[in-house]
Amino acid sequence: MPEEIPKRLPNLKLAQVFDALSYYCDHEAEIDAYIESNRNKNQSINPSIKPDTLQQRPYGLCAGEFFVPDDFDEPLSDEIISQFEGKWNRWFDEVDRLEPEPPTVEPDEYGEELINKYKQQGLDF
């Protein structure tokens, strides 16, 4: 159920979840085609570059140019994690305090449909 998603991802609001689902429903074929095209490992981002023309970089090309400490993959300390989480929490708090500005133009047909879907779901707009 869509209502469960913000419980697992608290940085998302329910309205954002419904917006994403609504967009997916309106563009399902296009999104599915995009996902499927990204599953094809032989397809390059740039179609003019073919996988068989790509050359492998020599092993050890950057040897000695940078140093990876022995504790690189060790877990971060609680202090560093709390500092990081604190900054993100402050950022989300600031974003939540932002007041949306009223639109300067009337919504197009898609915008009207989206507004109606929000209203049908009992969401404030």
Which key phrases capture this entry?
5 helices, single chain, mainly alpha, 125 residues
Question: How would you describe the overall organization of this protein?
Answer:
There is one protein chain. By secondary structure, the chain is mainly alpha-helical. The protein has a domain at 1-41. The protein contains five helices and no strands. The longest helix has 20 residues, at 78-97. The protein is flat, with a radius of gyration of 23 Å. The chain starts with a helix and ends in a 5-residue tail after the last helix. The mean pLDDT is 80.
Discrete helix count = 5
What proportion of the residues form beta strands (DSSP E)? under 5%
Q: How far apart are the first and last residues' alpha carbons, in Å?
A: 21 Å
How many whole angstroms does the radius of gyration measure? 23 Å
Number of strands: 0
Q: What characteristic shape results from the CA principal axes?
A: flat
Order of helices and strands: HHHHH
The main pleated sheet reads as: none
Which secondary-structure class do the elements indicate?
mainly alpha
Provide mean pLDDT, rounded.
80
- As a percent range, the share of helical residues equals 40-55%
Low confidence ranges = none
Q: Helices, strands, pairings?
A:
Blueprint: H1 5-8, H2 14-26, H3 28-39, H4 78-97, H5 109-120
What can be said about this structure in brief?
The protein is mainly alpha-helical and 125 residues long. It has helices at residues 5-8, 14-26, 28-39, 78-97, 109-120.
